[in-house]
Specification:
The complex is a heterodimer. By secondary structure, chain A is of the alpha+beta class. Among the domains of chain A are: 178 residues, no CATH class; 47 residues. In chain A, strands 7, 8, 9, 10, 11, 14, 15, 17, 18, 23 and 35 form an 11-stranded antiparallel beta sheet that branches. In chain A, a hairpin with a 2-residue loop joins strand 1 and strand 2. Chain A starts with a helix and ends with a strand. By secondary structure, chain B is α+β, with helices and mostly antiparallel strands. Chain B folds into 3 domains: 275 residues, Neuraminidase (6 Propeller); 120 residues, Serine Threonine Protein Phosphatase 5, Tetratricopeptide repeat (Alpha Horseshoe), CATH 1.25.40; 204 residues, no CATH class. Chain B contains 19 helices and 27 strands. Chain B is elongated and about 110 Å long. About 3% of the residues of chain B have low confidence. The chains are: A alpha+beta, B alpha+beta. Chains A and B meet through strand 25, strand 35, helix 10, helix 11 and strand 42 of A and strand 1, strand 4, helix 14 and helix 19 of B. Strand 43 of chain A pairs antiparallel with strand 1 of chain B.
């Protein structure tokens, strides 16, 4: 029996692997080639899955439901892989390390590092103590199989560096070729870019760059990178997937996601293989200024001294049968927590810019853009056709929007002052309209009144500073320490509650950073602190572009992405976030009036199950010229009121039929015609094309949407 | 019976309700949305760039997305293989063909508009870099072979080649390296020859050299002026600045040729008339422009390639007003971003194709509803159909309140409708001062027409009243005694003798007889430092009033682009520095004046300005450009008189001759410049010092 098993495994696993690198490549099985019988194999059977592992290289394969998942399979000898890539394919772990004497980063696999692997069998997987003798780095490698889930763990505490003066660990990659494929083939790779994107493997890409995105964005405590108006969208979920007609794999970073990068490369970019993997970052290079002010510009490239503290936990969920985006969404939804009782009704959000400050001849002057009494009128007017209206106010602080954050109260008198907001909240409450204050507790305008001790210091001992990513704004922000930001939130909570209002959180759900010097904290701490504070506030929490760890405390998802970043390697955008979140919370768009590209946008809202949102003022937007809100170039309610009604009516006529429902499937029925199926059995058909689409007795005219 | 009917009606209604429910349940909730022929691209919701348009103060401001990426043609997965360093691309609407000069692969690829390859021309080609299609022929510039190839655009057979023109005008040293070409309807070829500074080579349909057109000019720099002054002709020849050679060429539907000169100091894009002279250039110049294409409405689509600042597509209307600019530095290789755009083609359906050399692909952009609206409105505007385009421009403003051209067009429409007040405010938003002047002239004219009679009557009445009162004052002075008691005795001798009035009155003396006035200051203390101080204060206030009270047409500053505190600081600093410098210079050049007298005389010498400035500012509010001569004259008098007074004051103050005074003035200016330099160096040193302490503080206490 054991012999038969070994023979079977021989056809599946990636070859006999010993620490002799070039020879090793020639012994790997290729497509249709059973190869030589590998040695040092250990097999575990667990809940329908059969895991076989090479005890030296830790290369493995899993057979489940008639399909085998390889952690590294060489398809052809003519694949032009060099020595390093062959080893990456056959070894479980690739190590990136900095050679301190030269300052260069090197990438080698454990075999290439002359690793000693002390393999320990377990009933549910295996443990391995890996000692990379060439660089004196060792760690524990734990693999567990549970049904269709394969979990890999490298505990932080187990990592030791015995010669850090010479070599320092920079990053680790675990099973980079897991469920990879070769050359052009049917299937795709799902990456968490924006709303989600699929890289089609059946077409040769014109891209020259692979996909690489840091989960939850850059660490502004270390990175000098800046955001801009059209920066690529953040990977807000620690997930990606390989999808093939006969099955696929969902990869999730269960712990340490804050230090993780998603990478995907397809044939003809680096190699002929289609691969996707997480890189786990333990240290980064950064720009160190000689002076903390950095004004003289003199700097050098330094390397993080201490390792980022996290346990590497990566789970591969094996998906059987034809694997589509909706299958991955279903699998991922099971791993995510959502807030209980969050509203899911089809709604409309109006955000009002109350006041902004403008440069005058002898100092700044406040331009009042909207009065509270005007909002009352608008709410009454819109309330006549909208059952679920959310009103949010922005720039209500003394002095207007610019230079206000992180201070939110007291109110500016121009729009109505305390009395005006009191009246507004009462009237909105009586009319059943949701009311919220737009806040930003982690950004402090450079120039705003705030104690320097509350500002985050980056690793170069400078204030962590970000540009304002709003169009037309030249403002800059410093980041606040999470503890201080949360303290400010708590202080404001009493005021917010007085007005029976919710809170729209900007930045807190989408920015993560570490702090240094005497405020040491890491990204994981910041994430925990932010989520904890929002949960503890008890107020309705609407969060702008929340990362996945904030979903459990989020009532409404604001500024939902309607596409991916459009990297050349990506074939198409998909509403992956929407598929995961659907039925769990409301999702609102970015202000439509500032992004109105035509009626395709309305179809997109329907297709992606996102409700419309507008940024509105009472006065004409030309009053904002010369302010940091000059990017708000059209906002007058008088101008937009008809369009608001039309867009809301169009969207709601379809989405109200599926409100509160989860997406079960989505497919392209015809070029430009997308069908999304919901848990209540209804289907939303969106026809972006220029010809009518007919199905099951229903005709969906060109450029329209229908519910079936 | 009634009961039976009731019994029937109840289930009937119930059945109808049930039926209605079923129908509603399966109802096709269709949302009709505006029809469009543009093909759908799933990626088109992702725009990796910001779109800008011309905003107030001549700056670029954000606007709605004007063009969205809608497709790409790369050949990476096709049979012909990927492009390699392509240099040019053109489209032909008549044959629905795209022609690509695949330079690195030594070939020209011909495709249909969807990118399906029709044929590949490669025989004999070495380095094809420029393409044109006209009259059923395809023209290919081959930089490597230094030839222009002419093919039949149907069969792609080579018809002939154009070699170096044998014409005396083409000198032996003139390079003939054809890189770009365009051809008009008569078959005239306009060839860009690399390094040829004489302009485009015009070659007729028979292949004969006709002449050069569209040569660029050199601009006279300060350095070149100095070189002309001080160097011999022979020496000057070594510095001779040669004009830039055009680098690309385009043509519009009327056959007018446009040159593109990359990295030109002046106009990068030039529209030429039939004589080959430049007649129009866009209002904003982008030196890194590499190519241009003119659409059927004569809007100019241009591309800029810049590795440092990013690459852009910039669209101008036919008059050169900037409509849209999108792109920027991306570095992420995103759909729609550009790395090195080398060719652009504006298609008849409104979309734009851009060839990117680094990405080796064509990126297609489609118009959004917003830009379609703008282009439609611009069509009316360029034809002068302001009223016809009014609704469209109003719609444009709905989507962008900062769209300057819309205000300009609407103001013109309102001028045609005699709504001058509205036009006036719109011209102001549009910063169209000529339009503003026209509108204001009309408003003032209307006002005068309606009120001139009353104005004359009021003036006459006032004049008559003054005359009568003066006569009565002489004959019956007792009648005016109570009035005099109430309003004081202004004009009476003892009031004139009050300290301040007396001293201020000395201004008159400065204006009439400066040297006597200075003498009286020096030896009779006719003016004190206090009154001079008050005049100084008034001088500073006038600078601020200049911003606040000057008429729009004569005021280059606004309260929003002026820093009042800076203005006060600079005015005070410059004035005091000049006084000090003059004093110090005078002490080493035998001057007699004391510092106190220097200050007093400087301030009093400015009396013409101090007295006239405010009335002139106020006057500027009722003048238009038609009467700008009045304003200019007033300014000339004001400043000229003050300068003369100042010169004479220095002369008398230090007891100088004319030439010595002139020398003193020049030395004062030099001393002032040196003081300024010293202050700048001091400021930099202090900044470094504070920066150093700031860093130490930051390191220790943060």
């Amino acid at each position: 029996m054991i012999g038969k098993l070994k023979l079977a495994v021989a056809a599946l696993i990636s070859g006999t692997v010993i620490a002799g690198n070039v020879a090793l490549a020639t012994t790997l099985p290729r497509d249709g080639d059973e190869g030589e019988t590998p040695q040092n194999l250990y097999t575990v059977e667990a809940d329908g899955s059969s895991l076989t592992v090479d005890t030296k290289t830790l290369n493995l394969s899993i057979t489940r439901g008639g399909r085998t998942w390889y952690s590294g399979k060489r398809y052809s000898e003519d694949d032009n892989l060099n020595n390093l890539w062959v080893n990456k394919l056959t070894d479980a772990i690739t190590v990136g390390y900095k050679v301190m004497s030269t300052g260069n980063t090197r990438e080698r696999t454990i075999s290439m590092l002359n690793a000693k692997v002390n393999f320990k069998e377990r009933e549910d997987g295996f443990d391995a103590d890996v000692n990379c003798r060439l660089i004196s780095v060792s760690f524990k490698f734990q693999v567990r199989i549970n049904g269709n889930k394969l979990q890999v763990r490298i505990p932080y505490e187990s990592i030791t560096e015995n010669d850090p003066e010479e070599n320092k660990l920079e990053y680790l990659v675990v099973y980079p070729f897991f469920d990879s494929s070769y050359s052009l083939c049917d299937g795709g790779i799902l990456v968490p870019d924006g709303s989600g994107a699929v890289i089609d493997l059946s077409e040769r890409t014109a891209a020259k760059q692979a996909y690489s995105a840091r989960i939850y964005g850059s660490d502004y405590g270390i990175s000098a990178s800046q955001v801009s108006v059209n920066s690529p969208q953040t990977a807000s979920m620690p997930v990606f997937a390989t999808m093939y007609p006969d099955g696929g794999t969902m990869f999730t970073a269960d712990d340490g996601a804050e230090y993780c990068t998603v990478n995907a490369s397809v044939n003809s970019i680096t190699t002929q293989y289609n691969i996707a993997y997480f890189s786990w970052i333990y240290r980064e290079s950064y720009v160190k200024y000689y002076e903390s002010s950095g004004t003289d510009g003199k700097s050098y490239i330094a390397f993080q001294d201490d390792m980022n503290k996290f346990d590497l936990v990566q789970t591969m969920t094996l998906i059987e049968g034809g694997c589509e985006v909706s299958d991955v969404a279903k699998a991922y939804r099971e791993t995510v927590d959502f807030k209980d009782g969050a509203a899911t009704d089809a709604g409309l959000r109006l955000q009002f810019l109350m006041a902004e400050n403008k440069k005058g001849m002898f100092g700044n002057e406040v331009v009042t853009m909207t009065k509270t009494s005007f909002i009352e009128q608008v709410a009454e007017e819109v309330g006549a056709y909208c059952d679920d209206l959310s009103v949010s106010v922005l720039g209500y602080s003394s002095g207007g929007l610019n230079n206000s954050y992180p201070n939110h109260f007291p109110f500016d008198g121009g729009p109505g002052g305390k009395k005006g907001y009191k009246s507004l909240s009462q009237k909105l409450s009586a009319a059943g309209v949701k009311f919220s204050f737009t806040t930003d507790y982690i950004k402090a305008y450079v120039g705003a009144s705030v104690n320097d001790k509350q500002l985050a210091l980056n690793i170069s001992n400078q204030f962590a500073t970000l540009n304002d990513d709003r169009a037309g704004s030249s403002a800059k922000f410093n980041l606040l320490n999470p503890d201080d930001a949360v303290a400010r939130m708590s202080d404001d909570l009493k005021t917010v509650n007085t007005y029976n209002a919710g809170i729209d959180y900007c930045s807190i759900g989408s920015l993560l950073y570490s702090g240094y010097k005497n405020r040491d904290y890491n990204r994981a701490y910041a994430a925990e602190k932010f989520a904890g504070a929002v949960a503890a506030s008890g107020a309705t929490a609407n969060i702008v572009k929340p990362n996945a760890y904030m979903w459990s405390v989020c009532d409404a998802y604001l500024e939902a992405p309607l596409s991916s970043s459009g990297f050349m390697i990506e074939t198409r955008s998909v509403p992956f976030i929407q598929m995961v979140v659907s039925g769990k919370m409301q999702m609102y768009s970015s202000p439509i009036n500032l992004n109105y590209t035509g009626d395709d946008l309305v179809l997109r809202l329907i297709d992606y199950n996102v409700y419309p949102s507008f940024l509105i003022t009472e006065k004409d937007a030309i009053e904002l010229y010369g302010t940091n809100s000059s990017g708000v170039f059209t906002s007058s309610y008088d101008i937009w009121k008809d369009k608001i009604k039309d867009i809301y009516t169009d969207v709601i006529s379809v989405l109200s039929k599926v409100e509160g429902c989860q997406v079960t499937d989505r497919y392209e029925a015809k070029n430009g015609v997308f069908v999304t199926e919901y848990s209540n059995g209804k289907s939303v058909i969106v026809n972006y094309g220029s010809t009518d689409y007919a199905t099951d007795g229903i005709t969906v005219p060109a450029r329209s949407a229908s519910v079936k | 019976m009634k009961k039976k009917v009731k019994k029937l009606i109840v289930p009937l209604i119930a059945a109808l309700l049930a039926l209605a429910s079923v129908i509603l349940f399966f109802w096709d909730y269709s949302v009709p949305v505006m029809a469009s022929d543009t093909p759908f691209s799933d990626d088109s919701f992702s725009v990796p760039y910001e779109t800008l348009t011309l905003g107030p103060n001549g700056g670029l401001v954000p606007t709605q997305t004007a063009f969205m990426p809608s497709g790409r043609i790369s050949f990476s997965s096709g049979t012909v293989g990927a492009l390699l360093g392509p240099e040019d691309m053109i489209t032909d609407a008549d044959s629905d063909r795209i022609y690509i000069a695949d330079t690195g692969n030594k070939r020209v690829i011909v495709t249909d508009m969807q990118g399906e390859v029709v044929t590949v021309i490669e025989e004999g080609l070495s380095q094809p870099t420029g393409l044109a299609v006209s009259g059923g022929n395809l023209f290919v510039c081959d930089k490597g072979n230094k030839l222009v190839y002419i093919y039949d655009a149907e069969s792609y057979e080579l018809l002939r080649t154009i070699d170096r023109p044998q014409n005396p005008l083409v000198g032996a040293n003139t390079p003939y390296v054809p890189t770009k070409i365009t051809v008009d309807n008569r078959g005239n070829m306009y060839v860009v020859s690399e390094g040829c500074v004489s302009g485009l080579m015009q070659i007729n349909a028979e292949g004969e050299f006709v002449g050069y057109v569209g040569a660029n000019e050199t601009s006279a720099s300060f350095l070149s002026v100095l070189q002309k002054l001080f160097f011999s002709e022979e020496q000057q020849n070594t510095f001779l600045a040669t004009p830039k050679s055009p680098t690309n060429v385009a043509i519009d539907g009327r056959g007018l040729v446009y040159t593109v000169t990359n990295n030109a100091a002046g106009n990068t894009i030039k529209k030429l008339n039939t004589m080959g002279n430049g007649i129009m250039s866009p209002s904003m110049n982008f030196a890194d422009t590499t190519a241009a294409s003119i659409d059927k409405s004569e809007n100019i689509f241009s591309v800029q390639s810049n590795q440092q600042n990013g690459s852009y597509v910039t669209v101008f209307d036919s008059e050169g007003n900037l409509l849209f600019r999108f792109g920027g530095k991306d570095g992420y290789e995103r759909f729609g971003s550009l790395s090195n755009p080398v060719a652009v083609s504006a298609l008849d359906d409104g979309s734009v194709m851009v060839l990117d050399k680094n990405y080796s692909m064509i990126v297609i952009y489609r118009r959004t509803d917003f830009s379609t609206l703008v282009f439609n409105a611009v069509d009316y505007y360029k034809d002068g159909l302001y009223l016809e385009g009014e609704d469209l421009w109003n719609e444009v403003l709905r989507y962008n309140s900062n769209f300057i051209l819309a205000y300009k067009a609407l103001a013109r429409a309102n001028m045609q409708k005699n709504n001058y007040s509205i036009a006036l405010s719109q011209f102001k938003y549009a910063e169209d001062t000529n339009g503003y002047s026209e509108a204001f002239w009309q408003i003032r004219n209307e006002w005068l027409e309606n009120n001139l009679l009353w104005v004359i009557i009021v003036v006459l009445v006032i004049v008559a009243a003054v005359i009568v009162l003066k006569i009565m004052n002489k004959r019956k002075p007792e009648w005016f005694a109570p009035v005099k008691r109430v309003f004081g005795k202004v004009g009476d001798a003892h009031v004139k003798n009050v300290y301040f009035f007396k001293e201020f009155n000395h201004s008159k003396r400065f204006m009439r007889s400066t040297q006597d006035a200075v003498y009286e200051v020096k030896y009779h203390n006719k003016a004190s430092i206090w009154t001079a101080g008050i005049l100084f204060l008034w001088f500073v206030v006038l600078q601020i009033l200049g911003v606040v009270t000057k008429g729009y047409l004569f005021n280059s500053a606004t309260v929003y682009n002026t820093n009042g505190w800076n203005m006060v600081l600079v005015t005070v600093g410059v004035m005091l520095a000049l006084v000090l410098c003059n004093y110090f210079v005078s002490t080493v050049t035998d001057g007699d004046g004391k510092l106190k007298h220097c200050f007093i005389c400087f301030m009093y010498a400015l009396s013409p300005y101090l007295i006239m400035a405010l009335p002139v500012y106020i006057l500027s509010n009722v003048l238009t450009y038609n009467e700008s001569i009045i304003y200019t004259f007033c300014e000339l008098v004001m400043y000229g008189w003050s300068a003369v007074c100042l010169f004479r004051a220095i002369m008398e103050l230090h007891d100088y001759s004319f030439w010595k005074t002139l020398k003193n003035v020049i030395l004062t200016v030099i001393a002032f410049a040196m003081a300024l330099l010293f202050l700048i160096v001091l400021y930099m040193l202090l900044a470094q010092l504070f920066g150093y302490f700031g860093s130490v503080f930051g390191e220790v206490f943060r």
